[in-house]
Amino acid sequence: MNISDRFYKLLNFLRNSNLLGMQVFDCESLVGDERECVYSENGIRVLVSHYWDYVEVLGISDEEFKAISTRKGFLTHLKKHL
């Protein structure tokens, strides 16, 4: 599976989840917040802190992170893949 396929699957997951609108990070918390792994596929993991309302998306490139970290970026990138 190439990068665009795995990123497309992540986009679909994020689109169908209730995670949009939460603060997004591309690194793991250093303070040990309790998080739940809600997605783990093809080297990409999505961890959610329900208490603090943030999401960590791990295993994607800086460009891919930029595409999902803003609503405009997310919607623009999603349209390219649909």
Walk me through this protein's architecture.
- Helix 2 packs across helix 3 (71-81).
- The two termini are 18 Å apart.
- The longest helix is centred in the N-terminal third of the chain and has 14 residues, at 3-16.
- Helix content is 40%, strand content 24%.
- A hairpin with a 2-residue loop joins strand 2 and strand 3 (44-49).
- It has a 4-stranded mixed sheet, covered by helices on one side.
- The chain is globular, with a radius of gyration of 12 Å.
- By secondary structure, it is of the alpha+beta class.
- The protein has one domain (3-81).
- It is built from 3 helices and 4 strands.
Describe the secondary-structure layout.
Blueprint: H1 3-16, E1 23-25, E2 36-41, E3 44-49, E4 54-58, H2 62-69, H3 71-81
Parallel strand pairs: 1-4
Antiparallel strand pairs: 2-3, 3-4
